[in-house]
Design brief:
With 198 residues, this protein is of the alpha/beta class. The chain is built from 4 helices and 10 strands, in the order H-E-H-E-E-E-E-H-E-E-E-E-E-H. The protein has a domain of 136 residues: Aldehyde Oxidoreductase, domain 4. GO terms for molecular function: hydrolase activity.
Length: 198
């Protein structure tokens, strides 16, 4: 790392903070807002509806549109880099020689206001989505599903604008969006990683 920093014209002693990646490539990106998710109408509705039923259905649709407009401001973006050179499984025993860099970095930006609990939930939900993506990709450690790498990072940021979110678990709208965007971004980035020549 020091060689890279020096080659770029900087002094290693003047670099503040921890530098974990010199070059960022193969970034997966996903964006989702609630207004993009269309509510499914029930299949097999009776074609012979009464006028009262049609009016009630119109009122329901008006309410649904108003609700969609309220939720429209909730947006989630995720950017992810995936390196699987040192995949790991949380809780598994690892030899010291396997603890070297190669990471999954995840940045999630939320257009909203989050409580402390929602921030913690966001990290948990993003981490669950990461593990789910690795399972879907068939990434394993000693025959068991990998849960990440030894140096993963998750960063959650909120704009501080829009609706207040008290929680962000998978049962919430916010948690749903976090899970979907992180999962999709990891799938994209992992596929780019796998295409790299050895």
């Amino acid at each position: 790392m020091n060689e890279f920093i020096t080659r770029e014209g900087m002094s290693p002693s003047e670099i503040a903070g921890m530098l974990t990646a010199a070059i960022v490539k193969d970034v997966g990106c996903s964006f989702l807002s609630l207004d993009q998710i269309e509510l499914q109408s029930p299949i097999g509705q009776d074609q012979g509806q009464s006028q009262e039923q049609e009016q009630a259905q119109d009122q329901d649709q008006d309410q649904e549109q108003k609700q969609k407009q309220k939720q429209k401001q909730l947006q989630v973006n995720a950017w992810v880099t995936v390196g699987l050179g040192n995949k790991a499984r949380a809780g598994a025993e690892l030899p010291a020689a396997s603890l070297y860099p190669g990471t999954i970095n995840c940045i999630v930006i939320i257009n909203g206001i989050l409580t402390d609990a929602a921030m913690v939930n966001s990290i948990i939900t993003a981490t669950e989505a990461k593990s789910a993506a690795l399972q879907a990709l068939g990434i394993e450690v000693d025959g068991l599903p990998a849960t990440g790498t030894t140096t993963d990072a998750v960063l959650i940021a909120a704009t501080g604008r829009g609706r207040l979110h008290s929680y962000a678990g998978t049962a919430t709208q916010l948690g749903y969006l976090i899970g979907r965007t992180v999962y999709e971004a990891i799938m994209q980035s992992a596929q780019l990683y796998e295409k790299k020549p050895c």
